[in-house]
Write a structure and sequence with these properties.
binds 4'-deoxy-4'-aminopyridoxal-5'-phosphate, Aspartate Aminotransferase, domain 2, binds glutamic acid, three-stranded antiparallel sheet, about 400 residues
């Protein structure tokens, strides 16, 4: 018999939907796959080149320090200086196999059985399961904020004091981006209440229109602090497959994470670490080119989706690369859909369109579409959605 923790664990709905779509495509079915948050761009050439040179020079043959190559940690430190004029110590950075593992290791060092971790819904699918794996209790609150943001009001009304608060800006799946004031007030609340704050900033470079992204790095020193920043190369540098992410925090936190990671991975794959060094230290114009392209896709999709019957977008996203839209409850009733999971399945089988439902993001009644896909696929997706919902 397998351990009980597996029984209560949900498989990642974004990855599961992605796999289903990829299997159908392999069978020759014309599926438009907008299930996973994965840029359609190639990893920029300078990054691949750096990886090939590292292999050729045999830099990739041995284990590195568990928390990553000094050169990569220093590249994260240099990026913090360049982007936010913030000085960090190398030891405040821990490199992991994707930001997902940084979050996992964090939950393992912060959460004891029974500890409460809170965030706002909708939230990224792995937070809840990682908290469960640490034995903690996870609560996602639907805030009355028009963009579903976590607010001081929500925090003040909590009946139980949480051990950890998770805040994701720009948000996956809603696309909301927190203002400086909003962030400052939440940071201040967590400080006053002596609560850990995980700021997941993995989409920080992907904001649109006149939105400004504010990093926790520029608002609060991490020395002796309970705030932790999560980031990585997956989204901004089109490097989802390379699996490099990191946490930045007080050294007491990064050292504890390193202890756990020493028993999980030994170190992140070395060739990917060399690629990530080039991503951070090399030319940054590809990031802006991709960001601009995401922005133009968001603009036309937002316009076209707004015209489709029976769906509505609560607000125009200002960051990340998702649109999270609501399904009219009358449409669901009339067509005998019990929940949006069933709609997501029907879209896949009837329209060959893969988009996950809000259930996995803690907000049933919605569907999430990733627009990190080609314009042709997005245009086709709009057609299929129109056909299904009209
Ligand atoms: N945080 C959020 C909000 C995400 O959407 C993702 C998705 N990949 C991650 C963390 C993890 O990213 P990765 O493991 O690819 O670095
Ligand atoms: N973060 C992406 C998403 O939400 C990638 C898949 C995953 O890791 O869940 O689709």
């Amino acid at each position: 018999m397998l351990a009980k923790r597996v029984d209560s664990l949900e498989a990642s709905p974004t990855l599961a939907m992605g796999k289903k779509a990829k299997d159908m495509i392999a069978d020759g079915i014309d599926v438009v796959n907008l299930s996973q948050g994965e840029p359609d761009f190639n990893t920029p050439d300078n990054i691949g080149r750096a990886a090939r040179i590292a292999i050729k020079d045999h830099l990739t043959d041995s284990y590195t320090a568990t928390n990553g190559l000094v050169e990569l940690k220093n590249a994260v430190v240099a990026a913090a200086k360049r982007d936010y004029n913030v000085s960090l110590l190398t030891d405040q950075v821990v490199i992991t196999t994707g930001a997902k593992l940084a979050l996992y290791a964090l939950m393992q060092i912060l959460v004891d059985p029974g500890d409460l971790v809170i965030t706002s819904a909708p939230f990224w699918v792995s937070y809840s399961e990682q908290v469960k794996l640490a034995g903690g209790s996870f609560k996602a609150i639907v805030s009355s904020d028009p963009q579903f943001k976590l607010t001081i009001d929500v925090l003040n009304k909590l009946e139980e004091k949480p051990k950890v608060v998770i805040l994701n800006t720009p948000n996956n799946p809603s696309g909301a981006v927190y203002s400086k004031n909003e962030l400052e007030s939440i940071i201040s609340w967590t400080k006053t209440n002596d609560v850990y704050l995980i700021l997941d900033e993995i989409y920080g470079k992907l904001v649109y229109g006149d939105t400004v992204f504010h990093s926790g790095l520029s608002l609060e020193s991490l020395v002796n602090s309970k705030m932790i920043i999560i980031n990585g190369v997956s989204k901004a540098y089109a490097m989802t497959g390379w699996r490099i992410g990191w946490a930045i925090a007080d050294v007491s936190i990064t050292h504890a994470m390193t202890k756990i990671l020493g028993h999980l991975t030994s170190n992140p794959t070395v060739v990917a670490q060399y690629a990530a060094i080039e991503a951070l230290n090399g030319q940054q114009k590809s990031v802006e080119t991709m960001r601009k392209s995401f922005e133009s896709r968001l603009n036309f999709l937002y316009r076209d989706l707004s015209e489709i019957d029976n769906i509505s977008i609560p607000f125009k996203p200002s960051g990340s690369f998702y649109i999270f839209f609501k399904i009219d409850s009358k449409f669901m009733k009339k067509n005998n859909f019990k929940n949006t999971n069933e709609i997501s399945m029907a879209l896949l089988s009837e329209e060959k369109l893969a988009i996950p439902s809000g259930e996995g993001f803690g907000m049933p009644g919605y569907l999430r579409l990733s627009y990190a896909k080609s314009e042709a696929e997005l245009i086709e997706a709009v057609k299929r959605l129109k056909h299904f919902f009209s």
